[in-house]
Design a protein that fits this description.
The complex is a heterodimer of chains A (229) and B (615). Chain A contains six helices and twelve strands. Chain A has 229 residues and is of the alpha+beta class. The longest helix of chain A is centred in the middle third of the chain and has 17 residues. With 615 residues, chain B is of the alpha/beta class. Chain B is built from 24 helices and 19 strands. In chain B, the strands form six sheets. Chain B has a five-stranded mixed β-sheet with strand order 12-11-15-13-14. In chain B, strands 2-1-3-4 form a four-stranded mixed β-sheet, with helices on one face. In chain B, strand 3 and strand 4 form a beta hairpin. The chains are: A alpha+beta (229), B alpha/beta (615). The interface between A and B is medium-sized, with 37 and 32 residues.
Chain lengths: 229, 615
């Protein structure tokens, strides 16, 4: 792979050609906060927390480092006043909409954001779409998606009813940064409340413990068969 | 099937031979505006009347596209003289046929009256509304029946395509468009020739061309008029573009709310295919090209090019970050050239008349003409096409006829929800891409909403903010939550609950949303608020500090009352009040019960003695 040279925070650094600015910065030990980014998923560019200042001939602009390509000779500032101001606004807005999400509270404290100047509800889901993308890109189940637009946008299973596509793997709950996806394993049942999904565990023939939802098991079996072929 | 440029020329010649230029031609506007006012019935009545009189061979009847003067519809123009009748009703038809068509006599009562001089004007081009216009694109609308290809071909249509395919290399075509200095008419003003070149040179096959006809700004309807009125010129532009760029497939993305435009385009595409102007080996050149229609499903954000492409591909209409730009990685990851309806429609003109001719129109930075839809508090609502560099004052007062009811002009909102308000002091600015940006507005698609003294600028800003927060796709935080937050603040200001610091917060939020949003929607969404604060900050301050709305619009901040001196006790207001808030004896002054009053203003509207006051 070819390397390129760019300037990040005043220091000349090397990055792999084709890397994003976020990758280039992290490779060089510079931390940039993110919310909707996950290494295992395609970048989304939605939360705008990872914005950095890209200095250009016509002045500076903010770009989302998780999606913006690192280019030869680029000059990037990851912690300038312009960047910090933008991140503070983003976090203030998120705090206004999800005041009880711990990750948002922590970010707000870190950036010195106290009380948001407006109130935009109380919903732990910040629409980072990590759950939707993980369900699609990693699990392959595509059981949930983003529906509606704007402020009333939300994540839902098809038609908002329990869907056979959900295999109860709970990757969504695992990857959710705010804990907005609640699940309960009670005795022999697992419920993912947000998706209205319910599963019954199967008892182990040897120890009697309950394990994996049969739907999920079936899915694994199908995968195994495919791999053998 | 027309197989060669020579055959096309032959068809054109024989078509124009069959037309007697001295024969009367009755044209009825079939644009959406005139249809809403009953032009279809007028057209049918004319057809019947011509049949009854048995004069089918002496007169041509044609339903055309929109010539722009929507305010006065239904419009009827009698060619070749260009006699202009407005507000035509079915009852007028017999007289028009018997007097004007058969005897050449002008019917006085149907003529346009100049509101300033009081003079009656018989000929279309003498009317002030049309006089200052330069209708390069719109002008053909009233000369062609958009549902037939013959009118367009008879007027030289597809001649530019024939020239391009027969005599020019793709590079030469791009060179011509570049020299004409055409800039994207969708609003951002990117140089069209450069965009074509980038797409042509981008690696990857196949390439695509797309027409963005997802016109969605409130009050904008120029793209609709072009697609409805002259779809063949759009197609011709796209085929030429396809040839220049090296694409063989094109898409027109048009909103489903424009059924007539989609229908006319569909007909035009099928006629194009029938006559060999679309499809394989066009005019024997070996070049293949075809166009498909994609209907938008009602999302404003799909006018943003990356969301538009996602929608064409069948995915959710959400924008994605750029780069990569569509010209590098567009539809299905292939190089794609997206242009607006007007941009494509300008191309055949540039090829026909030459880049030098085109570049001579307009200003240094913006060449050619621009169509504006002029709406709001203006006398001549409609579509106006003027050379770039025309001043706002000429546009609003000379062409637009000024403000109704002798009210004062306050501001004009240009560029829809992405644009900004421009006040009186800047009316003499020549309009082009750069001057508008400097004033805090933008060219945008060309929607112009004129505001008079009765418009509350805070409420206007709130209207546009409500629109964008509703149309935000919700993918990125600044746009989804930021526009909602601005909306909340504006709402509390108009409801009388504004707080100190609200203006500063709006400015701060606005700047941040512009800087950090993902796509053009968010990056321009705060403009109406920022520009109204820039020019009308005192109105915001009155709302917040004095809890008063200077334009008497915001319901929470106004009160209706009756002037006992002026009230004659006629009872009109009492009967008009929908909530029975007004009481009083006959011939005695009436009073308004403030508890019951819903501040609808009905009483003020019906009062003949100006006795209802608002403060």
């Amino acid at each position: 792979m070819r390397m390129i040279t760019l300037t990040i925070d005043g220091q000349e650094m090397e990055a792999l050609e084709g890397a994003t600015l976020l990758e280039a910065a992290r490779e060089n030990g510079i931390e940039i906060p993110t919310l909707c980014f996950h290494e295992a998923l395609e970048p989304y560019g939605g939360c705008r927390l990872c914005v950095v200042e890209l200095v250009g001939p016509k002045g500076s602009q903010l770009v989302a480092s998780c999606v913006h390509p690192a280019e030869e000779g680029a000059e990037v500032r990851t912690n300038s006043e312009m960047v910090r101001r933008s991140r503070r606004t983003t976090v203030e807005l998120l705090l206004a909409a999800a005041p009880n999400a711990k990750v948002i509270q922590d970010l707000a404290a870190e950036m010195g954001v106290e009380q948001p100047r407006v109130r935009l509800g109380d919903n732990d889901c910040i629409l980072c779409a990590l759950c939707v993308r993980a369900c699609d890109e990693i699990v392959g189940a595509n059981a949930i998606s983003l529906v509606n637009r704007g402020f009333v946008k939300e994540v839902k299973p098809p038609f908002g009813i329990g869907s056979n596509a959900c295999i109860g793997c709970t990757t969504c709950a695992f990857i959710c940064p705010t804990g907005a996806i609640k699940l309960a394993d009670v005795l022999t049942n697992r419920s993912v409340h947000k998706w209205k999904s319910d599963f019954e565990f199967r008892p182990c023939k040897i120890c009697g413990d309950h394990y994996l939802a049969p739907e999920l098991r079936q899915d694994y079996e199908e995968l195994l068969v495919e791999e053998q072929v | 099937m027309i197989q060669t440029p020579a055959e096309l020329e032959e068809v054109r010649r024989s078509l124009s031979k069959t037309k007697d230029p001295t024969q009367p031609c009755l044209t009825v506007c079939g644009g959406t505006g005139c249809r809403a006012l009953g032009s279809e019935e007028v057209f049918e009545a004319m057809e019947a009347e011509i049949g009854t009189q048995g004069i089918e061979n002496q007169v041509t009847l044609r339903m055309t596209g929109c010539p722009g003067f929507c305010e006065k519809g239904p419009l009827v123009v009698i060619q070749p003289e260009g006699i202009f009748y407005h507000g035509v009703k079915v009852d007028d038809v017999a007289q028009i046929v018997s007097e004007t068509v058969l005897k050449g006599e002008i019917i006085d009562s149907l003529l346009y009256v100049d509101p300033i001089t009081g003079e009656k004007i018989a000929h279309e081009r003498e009317i002030p509304f049309y006089k200052k216009q330069r209708p390069l694109l719109l002008g053909m609308n009233e000369q062609v029946d958009p549902t037939s290809i013959t009118d367009y071909v008879a007027l030289g249509g597809y001649g530019s395509l024939s020239k391009v395919l027969g005599q020019m290399t793709p590079e030469e075509v791009i060179g011509e468009v570049t020299r004409a200095k055409l800039r994207g008419r969708g609003g951002a003003g990117f140089p069209t020739g450069l965009k074509w070149r980038i797409t042509r040179e981008a690696p990857g096959q196949p390439k695509y061309v797309v027409c963005n006809a997802d016109e969605g700004d409130p009050g904008a309807f120029m793209d609709r008029a072009i697609v409805e009125g002259n779809p063949h010129r759009l197609l011709e532009g796209m085929i030429i573009g396809g040839y220049a760029i090296g694409a063989h497939r094109g898409f027109v993305y048009i909103r489903a709310e424009y059924p007539l435009a989609a229908k006319h385009l569909e007909i035009a595409i099928s006629h194009g295919r029938e006559h060999g102007l679309l499809g394989q080996d066009i005019l024997g050149s070996g070049f293949d090209f075809d166009v498909e229609i994609r209907l938008g499903a009602g999302a404003f954000v799909c006018g943003e090019e990356t969301a538009l492409m996602a929608s064409i591909e069948g995915r959710t209409g959400e924008p994605r970050p750029r780069p990569p730009y569509p010209s590098q990685e567009g539809l299905w990851g292939k190089p794609t050239n997206i242009n607006n309806v007007k941009t494509w429609s300008n191309v055949p003109l540039i090829i026909e008349k030459g880049a030098d001719w085109y570049a001579a129109i307009g200003t240094e930075s913006s060449r050619g003409t621009k169509i504006f839809s002029v709406v709001g508090k203006i006398n001549n609502t409609g579509l106006v096409e003027v050379p770039m560099g025309t001043t706002l004052r000429e546009l609003i007062f000379e062409i637009g006829g000024g403000i109704p009811k002798g009210k004062q002009f306050k501001a004009v909102q240009i560029g829809g929800p992405s644009g900004g308000c421009i006040p009186e002091e800047h009316l003499d600015t020549p309009i082009d891409y750069d001057s508008l940006t400097q004033l805090g507005a933008m060219m945008g698609s060309g929607g112009m909403v004129v505001c008079d003294e009765d418009t509350c600028m805070v409420e206007l800003a709130r209207f546009f903010m409500n629109f964008v927060q509703d149309e935000s796709c919700g993918k990125c935080v600044p746009c989804r939550l930021g526009t909602k937050a601005m909306m909340e603040v504006l709402t509390r200001i108009t409801e009388g609950n504004g707080q100190d610091g609200d203006i500063e917060y709006l400015l701060e939020l606005g700047e941040q949303i512009k800087e950090s949003s993902l796509c053009g929607l968010g990056q321009t969404a705060p403009n109406p608020v920022l520009s109204t604060i820039r020019y009308f900050r005192d109105e915001y301050e009155s709302h917040i500090r004095d809890k008063s709305c200077p334009a008497h619009v915001c319901k929470a901040l106004i009160q209706y009352s009756i002037d006992v001196e002026a009230c004659t006790g006629c009872g009109r207001c009492l009967r008009a009040c929908p909530v029975e808030a007004i009481s009083g004896e006959k011939k005695e002054p009436h009073i308004i019960d403030q508890e019951k009053c819903i501040k609808c203003g009905s009483c003020r509207e019906v009062c003949k003695f100006d006795a209802v006051m608002v403060e």
